[in-house]
Hints:
By secondary structure, the chain is mainly alpha-helical. It has helices at about 5-15, 25-35, 55-65, 75-95, 95-105, 105-125, 130-145, 145-160, 170. The protein is about 70% helix and about 0% strand. The chain is globular.
Amino acid sequence: xxxxxxxxxxxRSSFRDLALHDEPVATYxxxxxxxxxxxxxxxPPGVSVPxxxxxxxxxxxxxxxxxxxxxxxxPEREIDVRRHLGDYTLFMTGVFRERVERIASTGWYVSQxxxxxxxxxxxxxxxxxxxxxxxxxLYARLAERFEHYAWALDYARRVHFHDAPTLxxxxxxxx
Length: 175
């Protein structure tokens, strides 16, 4: 089965089981899992440090977006990094909750993920471009219901991923 379809089915089935009714978020989470199935996608493109492996690294990268001497100067870079921060923390607290509990505070990950999505939501909502404004409500819901969606990913992992193909990100959580 195609990987994207596998994740879509797992997420949608989990949403049904958990009575979460949000088609755009289900689609987004299926896409997130598909993207992060490739471990190099766990790190945003064009980073200024060799490898961003922690939430703190991502926060520093977002701050560096405003350094005029940096190669990736600009507010759009900050939006990309903060979106990735929201995605990363949601993915980690959902799929690898036990790892997050071992290496950091789950509450802090949740807080940083919510802040990141809220930042992206406000930026998208304030944007003059119609395509961007449509993203605002999605990211606002991701911020508001972050814990619900993290638990939905955890549920999907426990219920649907036991027969999953050997994906690199499943090895990531065991280190």
